[in-house]
Amino acid sequence: MESTGGPYLNMAAVTSPVGIARSLQMAFGCTTFSLVVHQGGFSAAYGTFCMFVWTFCFAITVFILACEFTRLHGCLSLSWGNFTAAFAMLATLMSVTAAVIYPLYFVQLDCYPIGCKVRDFRIAASVFAGLLFVAYAAEVFLTRAKPGQVTSYMATVSGLLKIVQAFVACIIFGALVNDSQYSKYAATQWCVAVYSFCFVVTVVVVAFSVTGKTALLWFPFERSVVVYTFGAVLLYISAAVIWPVFCFDSKYGSPWRPAACAKGRCPWDSQLVIAIFTYVNLLLYVVDLAYSQRIRFVSHL
């Protein structure tokens, strides 16, 4: 717990560059979902996802800002630096996704059939959703590890990449459950096992870093993470080879999108999404492995 000496309220929590960025996040997030609820409206899974992103990020940002301002974060059993860095990266990814999805599915230039008032509210909500993403990206930029700086692991490139890897894996899982026909071959089931294993271990690494419990482990956490990252690269290489062969080779699947495949319900589309993001995550793990050779873990910041 932090010392009780000095002022109880931390004015730097709202006046520093990071504090200003968090204040803007709170303002933009509240404005965005208020515009949507008041007149913009939302529907279906896409709209529900966007509303969840904006309300979830707003709630956690308020919590972080309140804890920083009152200095109560010292009472929490968390590695505060790791927690805030991890959330900022996650919120950046979630907010940019919502900022793309909402206007794509709900914004139109003409007034018919929703009416000009609803259209204007949806456009305004989309603008503030974009500003919300910029505010979270600004926090990531401001809090990221600088060369030679002693900082929390989650603020390093390797730590931030862990969040991106888990996020990309969630996109892969979403495509897998969307009629991807992965159970058709044992080889594609192996790929699903690769995605699942790497996702679970990555989440465990983030969880141990955020809770600051790495020092309690009986094995060297830093070395284990590097070994795991190397193993994840090898596993993703196997998936990057196997998945396209068993989905797009004419012997097992189709190299071209079937003409009779319904839009939005086509297994080929899901398979293509999985293939693309498999290569994306492979690249992320390779970059992570390269950067992990240059950092040292600090779990208590």
Automatic annotation (TrEMBL):
It is found in: Membrane. Residues 13-148, 153-297 form the MARVEL domain. It is a multi-pass membrane protein. PROSITE patterns: MARVEL. Its main location: membrane. The chain crosses the membrane at residues 44-66, 78-101, 121-142, 154-177, 192-218, 225-246, 272-291. Keywords: Membrane, Repeat, Transmembrane, Transmembrane helix. InterPro entries: Marvel, MYADM-like. GO terms for cellular component: membrane. Signal peptide: none annotated. Belongs to the MAL family. This is Myeloid-associated differentiation marker-like protein 2. It comes from Calypte anna.
